[in-house]
Amino acid sequence: MNPLSLIALLPVIEIILLIGMGSLFGFWFTLLWIIGTAAVGVYLLRRVRGAFQIGRPLDAVGQSTAADSLGIFATWVGAILLILPGPLTDLLGLVLVLPWLRKLTFGIWMAKNLHTIVTRRNARGQVYEGEIVDVHKEHRVIRQVDEDRDK
């Protein structure tokens, strides 16, 4: 399925999940869940904004690493997903916000996809047709024939 169509279906999926969550846990719990995750998302967004402002001088000095920047960016995206109402975006937001869960999820994804990442070839590569000749094997056969003739 096209990722763009999944993004278009996201509001429908979220509404269905919210209705199911409301019928399972009740209206007030669902409302508190939406407000609570939005509040956590706003808090994290403000905190990450401060980390971006603090990180700029570290980039100039060369002390900031790519992992720090990636973690800050993942927290920023996760905070935005937590602000959006819905259980699915909250789950994705939590995966991005919590470092241990982010590492675990990335590790599982890498374990499943490492083979395709490593063996992926460049599509512009050229294929040369031909046959492989084992020169050493032919040399051994010729040498064996010469030895048989000498006997």
Automatic annotation (TrEMBL):
The chain crosses the membrane at residues 12-45. Pfam families: FxsA (PF04186). InterPro entries: FxsA (IPR007313). Keywords: Membrane, Transmembrane, Transmembrane helix. GO terms for cellular component: membrane. NCBIfam families: PRK11463.1-2. PANTHER family: UPF0716 PROTEIN FXSA. This is FxsA cytoplasmic membrane protein.
